[in-house]
């Protein structure tokens, strides 16, 4: 499993595209956080990373499917999947290896953004940022990235077309992230609240408050497990 994980990371960073993808993620977040007037932290008047944590999931919606679209689709297309199946690895280990490789890339893309928190803390004249909320938001953002990675591996396991894998990964991630929110907001009754509980954004906002509820964590882990279960089934059937 770890062989698959490290192989995914090596392949991603073996070309200039991988580095450009990470740089684009950091650049876009930096522009939204410090440059664009509608979202610039410099215009808020107080130290907060709320703008970054609200924008980053939307950038992840594009970035992570770009990372995962080749996970299994490229293996099917190039014929290397048959070679992969000859390795002493179970279908579950292949699926988890692909997922862990993508998740490690997500983590590596998040680590440099800690400089945003350090910069804002240094720029703040009084108080500084809310440390608890910031840590919770980073945990929530990593969990969202992990779910998107699992969805991307899952959609890639269905097809040998990387474009189809990318588009379906984006659409499914978007539906799970904001779809339930949108449907729930159309209802004025308590039912709308319970519908929103099925969405990623509901649990992300809970964790972003700095309070880690085991129910929110289990929700993220449950979606990851379900996506990888489907991926394992598709690998068995190929």
Largest sheet: none
From the alpha carbons, calculate the radius of gyration and give it in angstroms: 19 Å
Average pLDDT for all residues: 85
| Topology pattern, helix = H, strand = E | HHHHHHHHHHHH
Alpha plus pi helix count: 12
Question: What structural class do you assign from the helix and strand content?
Answer: mainly alpha
Provide structural commentary:
There is one protein chain. By secondary structure, this protein is mainly alpha-helical. It has helices at 2-13, 16-35, 50-68, 73-78, 80-85, 91-110, 114-123, 131-156, 162-185, 190-196, 200-208, 214-237. The chain has 12 helices and no strands. Helix 3 (50-68) runs parallel beside helix 8, helix 6 (91-110) runs antiparallel to helix 8 and helix 8 (131-156) packs across helix 9 (162-185). It has one domain. The two termini are 19 Å apart.
Features of the shown structure:
238 residues; mainly alpha; globular
Summarize the structure.
This protein has helices at residues 2-13, 16-35, 50-68, 73-78, 80-85, 91-110, 114-123, 131-156, 162-185, 190-196, 200-208, 214-237. It has 238 residues and is mainly α. It has one domain.
List the topology elements.
Layout: H1 2-13, H2 16-35, H3 50-68, H4 73-78, H5 80-85, H6 91-110, H7 114-123, H8 131-156, H9 162-185, H10 190-196, H11 200-208, H12 214-237
